Amino acid sequence: xxxxxxxxxxxxxxxxxxxxxxxxxxxxxxxxxxxxxxxxxxxxxxxxxxxxxxxxxxxxxxxxxxxxxxxxxxxxxxxxxxxxxxxxxxxxxxxxxxxxxxxxxxxxxxxxxxxxxxxxxxxxxxxxxxxxxxxxxxxxxxxxxxxxxxxxxxxxxxxxxxxxxxxxxxxxxxxxxxxxxxxxxxxxxxxxxxxxxxxxxxxxxxxxxxxxxxxxxxxxxxxxxxxxxxxxxxxxxxxxxxxxxxxxxxxxxxxxxxxxxxxxxxxxxxxxxxxxxxxxxxxxxxxxxxxxxxxxxxxxxxxxxxxxxxxxxxxxxxxxxxxxxxxxxxxx
Length: 332
Fold this sequence. Notes:
The chain is mainly α. It is 62% helix and 8% strand. Helix 3 (32-42) links the parallel strand 1 and strand 2 (51-55).
């Protein structure tokens, strides 16, 4: 009961809430021989015996020894003589995502957790981290699909609970989609003058949304793995710009040929659609890479800026570009 109460005092999703207090600690005055006696006495009840932690008399973390070093060391040496003083550790209030990054970066099997005064209070083992990795990945996937994350598995979640998790974002996205409707309405006179333009609106919107979604998913993943930061934004934008140019050229050329051969439209209409497609893909990929980075900088979850939200923005942009280009080329 005492241990449970101690663990419950730490906020959810922090290192303190993940850790276990079942670890092997060795006092600084012990010899290697004494250390083995301690491990034999306490080991069966502990989470792991592969890593042992050397503590001062006031429980401050001094260093770490793995079992291999103990086995190979002189039995009369003090544990402080063979310990590794450069210990990778987490603080009790560190976010669980930071803990995952430490495990990934240093290939740990266990990570000591200290309080604000560097006193060892617990350890986090790799099996606990794997559970968190699965939980974080599931949460990001749901956010990217515009679903409010639920802690329960799908087969344990009721109909109404699932409904309330999905409906808020659907309402928000539905309302935001009315902007695209307003844009179409404002250009209905021009559409009436050239009805052939209407048939290509879904293709332009879907292609732009897909292009933006590809970039946003790639950037969100890179952010979660700590591969890029805000300072890299111009490098990321330049890379995505070059990618978008290549994608836009291929898509525009393929679509131009298709429109002339199969759709049998005029050169002016085909040019209007393909130029719009070219510009839309470039803008969509730039929006898809920039929004997640800014979201993280502002303290929001980058996953929220994934496909559904970006698609809505790109849809509105593609329509505005389409009608402006068609006006210039066809002269509506």
